[in-house]
Amino acid sequence: MSKGRGPLSALYNTVINSVDKVVPQVARPFWEAPAGPKTVFFWAPLGKWTLVLAGLSDLLNRPPQVVSVNQSGILATTGLIWSRYSFVIIPKNYSLLAVNLVVFATQGWLVVKALRWRRENEKKNAEFRHPYYPRTRSDDDW
Q1: Are 36 and 42 in contact (CB under 8 A)?
Q2: Among 142, 119, 124, 105, CA closest to 64
Q3: Among 89, 96, 101, 114, which is 20 to 30 Å from 81 by CA?
Q4: What is d(CA 67, CA 58) in angstroms, rounded to the nearest whole number?
Q5: What is the structure's pLDDT at 76?
Q6: Using only C-alpha atoms, what is the Rg of the chain?
Q7: pTM above 0.85, yes or no
Q8: Alpha-carbon span 20 to 41, nearest angstrom
Q9: Of residues 80 and 131, which shows the higher confidence score?
Q10: Which residues contact 91 (CB under 8 A, 6 or more apart)?
Q11: Is the dihedral of CA 81, 59, 61, 45 positive or negative?
Q12: Segments making up each domain of the chain, as ranges
């Protein structure tokens, strides 16, 4: 239960109290768990799965030339950092661990995919021309 006094806390408490009455006895241990649906420890990792879906979409659809190595590298690093954090916090949050390991894996694979393309094409002096964003060169291009 939220201890806040704002309107969102009131809404959250109303929803939790309403659902609490209809949760079957079999699902009670999960519902009452320290990292169960009554807490942010459940909802935050659940929302983070959207980041995993975006990464999987990039793995399947995005050409390696347009993958941002910096962005994917940072996301992979945060996946490792938050994986460690999931063991340090109390209660231990295995759903947070799972989502962050998958974030690390998908973003790490995107980095490998982009670096492999760069290595294979560096001698060809290849430059990817994006079909929707033509690059125009200027004197002050950095």
Answers
A1: yes
A2: 119
A3: 114
A4: 8
A5: 95
A6: 22
A7: no
A8: 18
A9: 80
A10: 33, 34, 35, 41
A11: negative
A12: 1-32, 34-121
